[in-house]
Amino acid sequence: MKGVINYGSFVSIAQLTDIHLFADINRSLVGIKTDFSFQEVLKQVKRTLPQVDLLLLTGDLTQDGSIESYGRLRQSLNDFGIHAYCLAGNHDDIPLMKAHLPSEYVHLSRSIDVGKWRILLLSSVVVDAVHGYLSDEELLYLEKNLSAYPDRPTLIAFHHPAVPLGSQWIDRICLENQDEFWAICDHHPQIEIVLNGHAHQAFDQIHETPHNSIRCLVTPSTCIQFEPQNDKFQIDHQPPGFRHLRLYPNGVMETDVHRLKVDSFQPDLAAVGY
């Protein structure tokens, strides 16, 4: 991270996910202009959080994987003026991300050290697929990093949820090799949080492994939402939002979800499906 950040009693992180920008700034996803809703969420971050140390963007940054959408995202994050760390989702074009996103305030780092905490950013993207998978390379990277820093409270972030969410259709397109991932996590008690996007909904659950207990979080999209606990695909009327995380030096984490006003961002259920 460039510069020196003077952390207070906690590290303050705003997680934004599933932004789905288009090359055309006026394009809508199920009736919501994704560029406009993203800008409104950024404004909400500034209005509601007195302290923001970094932004964490957990995939599906664009809907169409276009150079124009990545360029506009980069400009928005540079204008925001807080260091932003981005990872890919299934809608993203990773080569274009690498070519057009990095800048003074936008990073594609694999790990971040903030205060006493360590954040590991993995890629769960399978090219030309909707579901997620952590490759052998990603799992090896995870194992090596966890083994190298056993005393640092750790947050692991990637796009696809690592636990079932209770909806058959979304659970079929989450992380495919969950057992392999949790087998590694089971032996590293410093892991406090696994943070994901992809599901366009809020989710908060403790996942128990034989030797570990880890909090799993999923965060609403900055545009459209999916109805939780529904076995069939259904758009939800909940408005766009983001997650605020407060990471304390002793490994404690507090979190809450902030949303825009309901009436401002209602999906068009008659529009073409997602």
Report on the structure:
With 274 residues, this protein is α/β, with parallel strands linked by helices. It has one domain: Purple Acid Phosphatase, chain A, domain 2. Helices cover 22% and strands 26% of the residues. It has six helices and 16 strands. It has helices spanning 34-48, 67-80, 94-100, 136-148, 168-171, 178-185, and strands at residues 11-16, 28-29, 32-33, 54-58, 84-87, 106-107, 111-114, 117-121, 154-157, 191-196, 203-209, 212-218, 225-226, 235-236, 241-247, 253-259. A six-stranded mixed beta sheet has the order 6-5-4-1-15-16. Strands 7-8-9-10-12-11 form a six-stranded mixed beta sheet, with helices on one face. It starts with 10 loop residues before the first strand and ends in a 15-residue tail after the last strand. 41% of the residues are buried. The model is unreliable at 1-6 (pLDDT under 50).
Please identify, by name, the CATH architecture. 4-Layer Sandwich
Detail the poorly predicted runs. Answer: 1-6
Strand order of the largest sheet: 6-5-4-1-15-16
Shape call:
globular
Main pleated sheet: 6 strands, mixed
The average pLDDT score comes to 93
